[in-house]
Amino acid sequence: MYPAHTPQRSVEVHHPTPIQAPVAHSAPVVPMQPGSVPAVASVVLPDGRVVTGYAIDAVRPEPVTAKPAVSRAAVNVALGGVGFLAVCGGLLLLTSFIAALTAFIGQLIILAAVIFGGWIAVQVLSGSGHKGGTTVHIRKAVIKRNHFHG
């Protein structure tokens, strides 16, 4: 593990010192007279030690107070009111949704009319239309049909 030229080191080994158990002295239990001084409880543990302390009374829960009875009619009226408000809110949202959808469809129709109308206007007013079609000069056609030659 170490190279050959490294000097050897001495290792010190430390052994843990065991902890001695405390010597149990039994203390005499002195009874207390009841009165203004609280009672002292003593418990002897299996190893002979005595633990002394004050006894604590168990906490008693407070008595449950009776709740006032609620009328069945009052519960029905309250639930009916909540249901009515929920329906009114739903109808308001539905009405708002329908109005918004109607406005959106109207705007789409107007947009389509503007685009189609613009396309027609470009076709009519465009001077550089198709040159391959038949051009009819009304004045010449009328004159030719009535045999007015000039």
Number of helices: 2
Which structural class do you get from the secondary structure elements? mainly alpha
Mean pLDDT: 77
How large is the radius of gyration? 54 Å
Largest sheet: number of strands, sense, barrel closure? 2 strands, antiparallel
Low-confidence runs: none
For the termini, the CA-CA separation is 129 Å
Strand percentage:
5-15%
Strand order of the largest sheet: 1-2
Helix-strand pattern: EEHH
Shape: elongated
Tally of DSSP β-strands: 2
Could you write a compact summary of the structure shown?
Helices cover 41% and strands 7% of the residues.
Question: What does this entry look like structurally?
Answer:
With 150 residues, the protein is mainly α. Helices cover 41% and strands 7% of the residues. The protein is built from 2 helices and 2 strands, in the order ββαα. A two-stranded antiparallel sheet has the order 1-2. The model has no long low-confidence stretch (mean pLDDT 77).
